[in-house]
Amino acid sequence: MSPNAAASSPQSLAEVIESELRDRGSSVRATKERAYLKSNLLHYGVGVPGTRAVVRTALRGAELDHDGIIALVEALWNSTGAPDNASCAGKLGGAGRAGELTNTSRVAELDGVARAGDLDGAGRGTPIYECRSAATMVLIQKQDRLGAGDSDLFERLLRQARTWALVDPLAGDAVGPLSEYDAEFDPVLERWASDEDFWIRRSALLAHLRPLRESRGDFDRFSRYADAMLEEKEFFIRKAIGWVLRDTARTRPDMVFDWMLPRAHRASGVTMREAVKHLSPEQRDALLAVSVRGTRRTRAGSG
Question: Is the pTM of this model over 0.70?
Answer without folding.
Answer: yes
